[in-house]
UniProtKB/TrEMBL annotation:
The lineage of its organism: Bacteria, Bacillati, Actinomycetota, Actinomycetes, Micrococcales. InterPro entries: Bact_exopeptidase_dim_dom, PepT-like, Peptidase_M20, Peptidase_M20_dimer, Peptidase_M42. It holds the Pfam family Peptidase_M20. Residues 185-279 form the Peptidase M20 dimerisation domain. It comes from Terrabacter ginsenosidimutans. Belongs to the peptidase M42 family. The keyword Nucleotide-binding does not apply. Its cofactor is Zn(2+). This is M20/M25/M40 family metallo-hydrolase. Keywords: Hydrolase, Metal-binding, Zinc. PANTHER family: PEPTIDASE, PEPTIDASE T. The keyword Membrane does not apply.
Length: 382
């Protein structure tokens, strides 16, 4: 049902379900596996300009589209234009139950095209309703989110004026607000032993496989505590059955919502490696790289309060969500723009079972529209 002009009670009621769905399907049709965002970037840049934004693209392809407000203040609304993995040729299937799925051979890409479609619908509505009161919105669409938040990591936020923001890029029930995300650290651990002929003179060798096995066996992995997880995900090394292997490389990660707990877990993993190496006169390089940093937004901070009041205005319940992963929001928070992350309706993202209910796509868009059009909540510091 299309709203009759002039009869709209709340801006959120103006969301056009059919138009939103059509936009979403158009975006799904543009392949954008992570690292290959040129085509989707060109599509978005053109659309944002048509919808009244001033758009700029940085040297790695991040797009900032500024939609001018009708009242003072600037907020950030962030999405990412890449999709996980390498899938192309996505074929969405709309079920009789109002759920959009894949044909079973690829991901859907609702992560994060559902967020992008919602932003475009909001731009269209704001353009059609200059009588509404809303702040200037910096719509940021990043590249490389699925490759480790590459786009937001590189984005120069000194170009932005936003005091706070909203990242449309999570799963979770409608009404959830992701206020707390962990720090994630990637590990690359290389064991150096000594090569020798295993049949002829094994006593001259030091087996890097054996050292690595001892190290991994001594580690606590999986769920460490309520806040902390750790994993060794790959193990590679050796060259032949009859050669004592001199190199083994492990790749792993650890995450925690608590920095002290993470530091303790990482040093325990390092110690396990060093002790195993020492016991066999081998050597180890233990390299850790922080991929993103934890953030925690208080309930009385501006992005949380604004998201919560918008959600309540739609008759939904606010559910605080602590996530196990990161979003571009981790970098915006680290760079001084406090953000919460919000659900777009996506379910089972990154899998061939990925799907989204059209009703949830609509609600996510309504939440965003309610956030931007609700009365200003003062200009106090976030
Ligand atoms: Zn995503």
């Amino acid at each position: 049902m299309s709203p009759v002009p002039g009869s709209v009670l709340r801006p959120a009621d103006a969301v056009d379900r059919d138009r939103l769905l059509a936009t979403f399907l158009e975006l799904l049709a543009v392949d954008s596996p992570t690292g290959h965002e040129e085509e989707i970037g060109a599509v978005l840049e053109a659309r944002y300009a048509e919808l009244g934004c001033t758009t700029t693209k940085d040297d790695i392809g991040n797009i900032v589209a500024v939609f001018p407000g009708t009242r003072p203040g600037t907020i950030l609304v962030s999405t990412h234009m890449d999709t996980a993995g390498t899938d192309r040729g996505i074929v969405p299937v709309i079920g009789d139950d109002g759920v959009i799925r894949t044909d079973g051979t690829t991901i859907l890409g609702a992560d994060d095209k559902s967020g992008l479609a919602g932003c475009m619908e909001v731009m269209r509505l704001l353009r059609a309703h200059p009588e509404w009161s809303f702040p200037t919105i910096e719509f940021v669409s990043t590249v490389g989110e699925e490759s480790g938040l590459v786009g937001s990591r590189h984005l120069d936020v000194s170009r932005l004026n936003a005091t706070h923001g909203f990242v449309l890029d999570t799963a979770g029930v409608m009404g959830s607000v992701t206020y707390w995300s962990p720090t994630s650290v990637y590990l690359t651990i290389t064991f150096h032993g000594r090569k020798a002929h295993a049949g002829v003179e094994p006593e001259k060798g030091i087996s890097a496989v054996q050292v690595a096995a001892e190290a991994v066996a001594a580690m606590q992995l999986g769920r460490i505590d309520e806040e902390t997880v750790a994993n060794i995900g790959t193990i590679q090394g050796g060259e032949a059955r009859n050669v004592i292997p001199d190199t083994v490389v492990l790749q792993g990660m650890a995450r925690s919502h608590d920095q002290d707990k993470l530091d303790r877990q990482l040093s325990a993993m390092r110690q396990a490696c060093e002790q195993a190496a020492e016991a066999h006169s081998a050597a180890v390089d233990f390299v850790q790289e922080e991929i993103y940093k934890t953030y925690r937004i208080a309930e009385d901070a501006r992005p949380y309060r604004e998201a919560a009041s918008a959600i309540r205005s739609l008759g939904l319940e606010v559910s605080p969500r602590k996530s196990g992963g990161g979003t571009d929001g981790n970098y915006f928070n680290a760079k001084g723009i406090p953000c919460v992350a919000l659900p777009t309706g996506m379910v089972d993202e990154h899998a061939t079972s990925e799907h989204i209910a059209i009703d949830d796509l609509v609600v996510a868009c309504q939440v965003l529209l309610a956030i931007v059009t609700q009365p200003a909540q003062g200009d106090e510091q976030p």
